TrEMBL record:
Pfam families hit by this protein: Ald_Xan_dh_C, MoCoBD_1, MoCoBD_2
The protein's name: Xanthine dehydrogenase molybdenum binding subunit apoprotein
Co-factor(s): [2Fe-2S] cluster; Mo-molybdopterin cytosine dinucleotide; FAD; Mo-molybdopterin
UniProt keyword annotations, A-Z: 2Fe-2S, Iron, Iron-sulfur, Metal-binding, Oxidoreductase
InterPro entries reported for this sequence: Ald_Oxase/Xan_DH_a/b, Ald_Oxase/Xan_DH_a/b_sf, Ald_Oxase/xanthine_DH-like, AldOxase/xan_DH_MoCoBD1, AldOxase/xan_DH_MoCoBD2, AldOxase/xan_DH_Mopterin-bd_sf, Xanthine_DH_Mopterin-bd_su
Domain of life, per lineage: Bacteria
Length: 796
């Protein structure tokens, strides 16, 4: 076969097509599963420390917004074990680690902008001594007015970026014609990433100003850039390596930068290895989270429940700097439609500047926040019309041949939602269970059950077009073993396993012969973050390209041994087959080496057909859409606000899954993580602007006991309509939207208190307190409508 110049346009090759041999599309354990279980997987903090290693800690601001009048660090320097204290004045290069806009100081110069902002770095002989010393500074502040909430930010027109707006059709005229209008406000809280391994970087000075940074990061190339800038070096001076993270969830896409820079600054200053590791409280106090959103919404609809006009104004809590808030807001705008055709729509988003942590990427990246607003609207329309919300949802679904263009202009191709929804409706026995729940609620005054089916559509690609590229490096050694390196990072999601499978598939070798190495900026350069769920899509294609280049050389060589045509050579079962004969893969490799055939290759991939005009918010930002839906059934105790998820059924469109076991794991994990976001995980800042929920004692992530006993996750098996890697689809983020069904099942149960006649005003997270507040609002509303009605006797 000829050299594939355009790997992304290549059809599935003949390699293994007819033989049934496959390394992709089969469930394989995570490449590090055994090491994880044995405690032998090396995380950054497990790397053996070099002699002379020092430990750093950050001195944090205790005011939300204040000028520093005096900074007395003498007491810090006097603490046991302290070797050095660094401030902004000690930064040889640029004091900035912002990913896009350069408004993110590594260390404060004169004005602190949130409680937890790093003011200085203390370096000591031990981690504990560094942390103890970090608390001893005497800082004199002159306090300035602080903005904490998105509402305050909007009132003060305090934004980190100009507000954005996407309009289609004529919303105003459509509202004037609309038979009914629903209007309101909604608040959806943020979320802490709560990766199990906290932020960490270990910087090791190398000869001639070089710097090696071992860093837990989703974005080694960006860490390389920010460290080079901070040290006043070039990128070629800085090497960043990451074998794996103990979770990232977006929290290490940009915000590993502070830790990488902090460790590197101290290491360069002292010419000694320095480790900077955050303990959980500092990690939560310092780093940004999922953006909370405040929505003002309005929708017009007809008698059947079809949305004819929609308007939403979303205000995000961006925090003190821009970080990734712009792309997050853009993704929210591009997911407000979720699965629904909105003919006349006006979508606004503004990134409120607040004196809080700078909010950042978190699984879904604004997509979940955009989509939940329209789901809230649909839920209200259904209740107002006395219909089942599922019927309003499907009525508004994007069409296949018409009503199929998003407000930003992309056509919704390969829309499997009608089929997928019907399959889930059947398999979950939605209608029968709805009737059973109504019957239950009619005789159950205190415990109320609720049910909801919610769908998702999620656009796959970075919404910044140039980021959609990747590289890989594949080595075949003379003993036939294969080593793979690519630009993606492993955070538990299984990108390495999938990329290994792709390479094994191309070379026709058993997965056991393929080994993966740490992500390293000296191997593949200029990589994008492993984010936007594109890790396997991009790096899988790049590694496939590299493997195909090697395979093509081996094929050309094999016909010199076996005869036949290079185009007919097949690689499978650890052997090379052509012309009726076959040779073991390792033998072909050894012979090729002796004939001086290059046995390694790079590979590259750039996603085709993407376009985006940020100004008009129009284009084709996504390569394709992933779809899914879930049904959740809950029971709520209306006296305590406690609830339980009784059963969840999820159906997710992973295309032709590369590895169904890993994909099901991702769907389960995203479901439970999203459920935590919408129910128990409450971030709370006090009036002074201090985040008080900075540890698991006050911040409740789901535990195993919160998982439903009856949890049925399935993949919807259909090939991707675009030529993605083996026609698979991304799985990392989209399933985070599946637990919308939990939130709306809780809302359904609450509304049962008053016979589903009023819309419970339920914000997220739907904590027990929030549930009780919503129940009170419903019963008061019904009492004022009906005269005094005994609270729990109303029924549908
Ligand atoms: N799964 C695990 N176990 N740990 C993680 O940190 N991050 C999620 C998702 N799944 C994450 C995860 C996020 S935010 C993204 S963008 C994707 O994985 C990134 O990996 P992928 O693109 O290879 O799917
Ligand atoms: N997801 C994650 N990170 C990003 C994106 C995105 O869509 N766009 C730019 N950075
Ligand atoms: Mo994921 S939020 O794109 O890192």
């Amino acid at each position: 076969m000829n050299h594939p110049e355009m790997p992304n346009l290549m059809p599935e090759t003949a390699t293994n097509a007819d033989t049934g041999w496959r390394a992709v599309g089969v469930s394989r354990p995570h490449e590090s599963a055994e090491l994880h279980v044995l405690g032998q997987a090396t995380y950054t903090d497990d790397i053996p420390e070099l002699q002379g290693t020092l430990h750093a800690a950050l001195g944090l601001s205790s005011k939300a917004h204040a000028r520093i009048l005096a900074l007395d660090l003498a007491p810090v320097r006097a603490m046991p074990g302290v070797v050095a204290v660094l401030t902004a004045a000690d930064i040889p290069g640029t004091n900035d680690c912002g990913p896009i806009i350069h408004d993110d100081p590594i260390l404060v110069t004169d004005t602190v902008q949130y409680i937890g902002q790093p003011v200085f770095i203390v370096v000591a002989d031990t981690h504990t001594n560094a942390r103890r010393a970090a608390r001893q500074a005497n800082v004199t502040y002159e306090e300035l007015p602080a903005i904490i909430t998105p509402q305050q930010a909007k009132a003060a027109a305090s934004y980190v970026l100009p507000p954005m707006r996407l309009e289609r059709g004529d919303a105003q005229a459509a509202f004037e014609r609309a038979p009914h209008v629903v209007k309101g406000e909604l608040f959806v809280g943020g979320q802490e990433q709560f990766y199990l391994e906290g932020q960490i970087a270990y910087a090791i000075p190398k000869e001639n100003r070089g710097m090696l940074v071992q860093c837990s990061t989703q974005h080694p190339s960006e860490m390389q850039h920010v460290v080079a800038h901070a040290l006043g070096l070039h990128s070629h001076h800085v090497q960043v390596e990451c074998r794996r993270m103990g979770g990232g969830f977006g929290g290490k896409e940009s915000q590993s930068a502070l830790w990488a820079c902090g460790a590197a600054l101290a290491a360069a200053h002292l010419k000694r290895p320095v480790k900077l590791r955050a303990d959980r409280d500092d990690d939560m106090l310092v780093t940004g989270k999922r953006h909370c959103f405040w929505y003002e919404y309005e929708a017009g609809y007809d008698d059947e429940g079809r949305i004819v006009a929609a308007r939403v104004d979303m205000t995000l809590r961006a925090g003190y700097s821009a970080d990734l808030s712009g792309p997050v807001a853009t993704r929210a705008v591009c997911h407000f439609d979720n699965c629904y055709y909105l003919s006349d729509v006006d979508i606004r988003a503004a990134c409120g500047r607040t004196n809080t942590q700078s909010n950042t990427a978190f699984r879904g990246f604004g997509g979940p926040q955009g989509a939940i607003a329209i789901e809230y609207v649909i839920d209200e329309i259904a209740r107002n019309l006395g219909k089942d919300a599922l019927d309003i949802r499907t009525l508004n679904y994007y069409g296949i041949d018409e009503r199929n263009q998003t407000p930003y202009g992309q056509v919704v191709a390969g829309n499997v939602l009608p089929e997928l929804t019907a399959q889930l409706e059947r398999s979950s026995e939605y209608r029968t269970r709805r009737a059973a729940i109504d019957a239950y609620n009619a005789t159950s005054p205190v415990l109320k059950k609720g049910l909801a089916l919610t769908p998702l559509k999620f656009g796959i690609a970075f919404n910044v077009t140039h980021l959609n590229q990747a590289g890989a490096l594949v080595h075949v050694y003379v003993d036939g073993s294969v080593l793979v390196n690519h630009g993606g990072t492993e955070m538990g999601q299984g990108v390495n396993t999938k990329v290994m499978q792709v390479v094994a598939h191309e070379l026709g070798v058993d997965l056991a012969h393929v080994r993966i190495t740490a992500t390293d900026t000296t191997k593949v350069s200029n990589t994008s973050a492993t984010a936007a769920s594109t890790g396997a899509d991009l790096n899988g294609k790049a590694a496939q390209d590299a493997a195909r280049r090697i395979r093509d050389r081996l094929a050309a060589f094999a016909v010199t041994l076996l005869g036949g045509e290079a185009a007919d050579v097949q690689f499978h079962d650890d052997a090379v087959h052509v012309n009726g004969g076959s040779l073991p893969f390792v033998e072909v490799v050894q012979k090729a080496y002796l004939k001086r055939v290059q046995l390694w290759s790079d590979g590259f991939y750039a996603t085709p057909n993407l376009s985006w005009d940020a100004k008009s918010m129009n284009g084709n930002p996504f390569s394709y859409y992933a779809y899914g839906a879930a049904v959740s059934e809950v029971v709520v105790d209306t006296l305590t606000g406690e609830w339980k998820l009784l059963r969840a059924d999820a159906l997710y469109d992973a295309g032709r899954s590369l590895n169904p076991a890993l994909d099901i794991g991702q769907v389960e994990g995203a479901f439970i993580q999203g459920m935590g976001w919408l129910t128990t995980e409450q971030l709370w800042w006090n009036a002074a602007g201090k985040l008080m929920t900075h540890a698991p004692s006050t911040y409740k992530i789901p535990g195993i006991s919160d998982c439903p006993e009856d949890f049925r996750v399935q993949l919807f098996d259909q090939p991707n309509v675009v030529d993605s890697i083996h026609r698979s689809k991304a799985v990392g983020e989209p399933p985070l939207l599946l637990p919308f069904s939990v939130f709306f099942a809780i809302r359904d149960a609450i509304s049962a208190v008053a016979g589903h006649r009023v819309n419970p005003p339920l914000n997220a997270p739907a904590t027990s307190e929030e549930i009780l507040r919503a129940i009170d609002a419903v019963t008061e509303n019904i009492a004022s409508k009906m005269g005094s009605v005994p609270i729990f006797q109303a029924s549908r």
